[in-house]
Amino acid sequence: MKRRDFLKFIGVGAAGGAAGFIIGKVSKPPGAKLIPYVVPDENIIPGVANYYSSLCTLCSAGCGIHARVMEGRVKKIEGNPLHPVNKGRLCALGQAMPQVTYNPDRIKGPLKRRGAKGTGDYVDITWEEAITIISKNLSDIAKSGSADGLYLLTPPQRGNLGALIDSFLTAYGSSNHYQYELFGQRNLYFANHAAMGLANAPHYDIENAKYVLSFGADFTSTWMSPVHYSAAYGEMRQAGKGGRGALVQVEPRLSLTGANADEWVPAKPGTEAILALAIAHAVVEKGWAKGGDLDGWRHVLAGYKPSVAADLTDVSEERIYAIARAFTHTRPSLAIGGDGVSSYQDGVSGLMAVNILNHLAGNNGATGGVIPNPEPAIKRDSAVDFKRRISTLAADAAKGKVKALIIYNSNPVFTTPVAAKLASVIRDAPFVVSMSSFLDETAVYADLILPMHTGLEDWGDDAPEPGVGTRVMTIMQPAITPYYNSKGAGDVFLGVAKQMGGRLSGLKANSFAEYLKDAWRTAYSKDRQMSASALTFDEFWEGALKRGGWWPKATVEARRQVTVSARSVSAHLAQMPARFEGKDTDYPFYLMLYPHSAHRDGRGANLPWLQELPDPMTSVVWGTWVEVNPKTAARLGLKEGDMAAIESPSGKITAPVYLYPGIRPDTVAVPIGQGHTQYGRYAARRGANPIEMLPHSEDARTGAIALNSTRVKLSGAGPSNMVKMEGSTKELGREIIQTAPPDGRSES
Q1: Residues 6+ away with beta carbon under 8 Å from 353
Q2: Residues 6+ away with beta carbon under 8 Å from 53
């Protein structure tokens, strides 16, 4: 209190209570004041917002965003309306980007391990010391003649960060860049390359389709590019474009996309590939197929008669023929294979069957069908190496080949089955560097933890995967200065290269921002479409930053025509239903795992906005649940909210029961995303991680981990405190749902 105000109070006190109103007058707090910065940033004007076009980095879809910044802080994220992928829309994960940057559990500076691995005992160090430690270890490994002992584990990398990483490894003398992501679509890439020769994912033109046949693709929620596909689905359902399109969803557990479909086909788990081939058989048998080599297709599909498939799939023969007819007679049509069908032990076979359907219906290269994407304008890193998989990394570690392991933006200890032994691999490796913003289940085993910039603080670029049928490159630029003492991954690799010198001296850029701009300058000089869009590179670059990237103004490009031959796919077809671990007598239920709509593979679980976001199908928040058909639950004596023990031959978790009519009675389902033991206060010790119940089963051709690969048994485990936001699913006489029968009379 100021001396003058104190004297006023003393005077008022002497005057007595009659002047009490004066106390209120003089004790009123002063008005708030705008206090200017001592040295203000040139981009900060108090009270005025700046908007930055950039890239959402919280999933691999590659959506464009606008970041609203005031006084140096990000206030809001919205979709970039100019961006071809999301066209101004954005999912909940993208909206939560500020909670990554300002998360209180974010690592605030480089850390060096002090205690035993896994204990989380670290001490703060400087970036200079961290770069020196990495450089010394890598130099010692190279001098010993073991340069190929450097292993790098990342998600699939696109754009110039991937190019820089490849250049770093090549110059150092290592070829061991392992790319792993739980939902990395390895089976899809393999199937499309083997069937159609495509190196990247095609554009599935849902917007212009009139009949979509989806095998386990939850494209309105989590599959591939859900914001783009949700908007496309909305357009497909509008009657203004030649009539309202139809969607048929094939899956044992009703997803959000299935709930929006015209028809749900609950095929028996593991038989979706056989069902798709039976539909293809019906197309050829009835003479509805387009294209040549019908004799070849009759031979390849001879063993998939609808009458036989009906018994295996629990889908009637009549329904199989009806779907085949609608798929070929409704134009244009499109078949899609998603995570549900690709996550079996033989996931490639289901996706190959989908490719056959599109070929026989004449959908490849057609509007409303499968459109191959052109090569990106900026060079990406090498294609996925199907021989480099988690199991081979573990095998190399067991043989002592791994001398140093650098892990960037990946949490394989959480996203792989316990039987994969990734925790042991990382714990026993001689030198481990984790480039992570959070102390997660993988980072806790590292010798060094390097906190990374978030997507709102860093430079980068991206070619979205899948694309939208035209060339698109997105630029990521910093919207704010780094909030903590972090660095970008590109700057770390450049810093190590600069200190080591020698073979790495060719990486001369002073910063990744400089490296990125130089790469775009080179692309501009070589690409006619780019150079035609602006007179000078500086003008082009400024425009790309404002726009959020570069894409041609023309919406139609020359399309590559692709075909599928009977010979190319014959070796990749399902011979029997997918295999599940466990005898049906001991483990009577199929287990279906699927990504949580907000947490995905677990990456969103440390953001409270996403923990509070109700699941769209169950409304459950802040936890895990197991979906059980009401008939099954009644037979087992389970009620909604009861805690259930879910046990497979490989592991056991507990979760509360959610009664879900949209699942087969022989199947139970659990979302992936919860069950962290690390990863901050909002994620740790919430729910259970169902991946712990899985055997380590991979697709033999691709190394993709099979999520739908085991049977389980259920038993009661006491009451729970499941939190959900919905009430009863019944009307209880309130006439909430109104129907309009053909005679026009309103009924409830």
Answers
A1: 273, 276, 277, 280, 337, 573, 574
A2: 64, 65, 66, 80, 475, 477, 545, 546, 547, 548, 549
Question: pLDDT tens digits, residue range 427-470?
Answer: 999 999 999 999 999 999 999 999 999 999 999 999 998 888 88
Residue 197 to residues 202, 568, 690, Cα–Cα distance (Å): 11, 10, 35
- Those residues whose C-beta lies under 8 Å from the C-beta of residue 629, and which sit 6 or more positions away, are 659, 660, 661, 663, 664, 665, 667
Predicted local confidence at residue 48, as pLDDT:
82
d(CA 377, CA 551): 9
Mean pLDDT of 350-362: 95
* Class of the CATH-defined domain 44-102+456-484+509-555: alpha beta
Residue of higher predicted confidence among 294 and 2? 294
Report in angstroms the alpha-carbon separations of 558 from 377, 464, 561, 578: 15, 19, 9, 39
**Every domain of the chain and the residues it spans:** 1-33, 44-102+456-484+509-555, 108-180+389-452+487-508, 186-371, 589-719
**pLDDT value at residue 386:** 86
The identity of residue 107, as a single letter, is I
Domains 108-180+389-452+487-508 and 186-371 share a fold: no
| 91 phi/psi in degrees, rounded to 5 | -85, 175
- Say if residue 381's pLDDT is above 50: yes
CATH architecture of 186-371: 3-Layer(aba) Sandwich (3.40)
| Widest pairwise Cα distance in the chain | 110
The CATH topology of domain 108-180+389-452+487-508 is Rossmann fold (3.40.50)
Pick from 222, 265, 249: nearest CA to 59: 222
Q: Return left, alpha or beta for 246; rule: phi > 0 is left, psi -120 to 50 is alpha, else beta.
A: beta
Contact residues for 491 (Cβ-Cβ < 8 A; gap 6+): 511, 512
pTM given for the model: 0.88
- 581 backbone φψ class: left, alpha, beta (φ>0; ψ -120 to 50): beta
User: What is the model's pLDDT at position 178?
Assistant: 93
Render pLDDT for 485-508 as a digit per residue (tens, 0 to 9). Answer: 999 999 999 999 999 998 998 898
CA-to-CA distance for 58 and 597, rounded, in angstroms? 13
Q: Which pLDDT score is estimated for 24?
A: 41
DSSP state of 452: B
The CA distance from 287 to 501, in Å, is 66
Distance CA 158, CA 77 (A): 23
Are 369 and 357 in contact by the 8 Å Cβ rule? The answer is no
Are the C-beta atoms of 650 and 669 separated by less than 8 Å? no
Residue 721 makes CB contacts below 8 A (sequence gap 6+) with 656
Q: Are 254 and 264 in contact (CB under 8 A)?
A: yes
DSSP per residue over 669-700, as a string?
EEEES--BSSS-TTTBTSS--GGGG----B-T
CA dihedral in degrees (232, 237, 241, 247; nearest 10)?
A: 90
The per-residue pLDDT for range 391-430, each reduced to its tens digit, is: 999 999 999 999 999 999 999 999 999 999 999 999 999 9
CB 628 within 8 A of CB 667: no
Whether omega for the bond prior to residue 430 falls within 30 degrees of 0, making it cis, is no
- Tell me the fold of 589-719: Barwin-like endoglucanases (2.40.40)
Residues 629/660, Cβ–Cβ less than 8 Å: yes
**H or E stretch including 204?**
strand 203-204
Interatomic CA distance for residues 675 and 217, integer angstroms: 25
Q: Is the dihedral of CA 461, 466, 471, 472 positive or negative?
A: negative
Dihedral of the alpha carbons of 453, 456, 457, 462, in degrees to the nearest 10: 80
152 beta partners: 177, 406
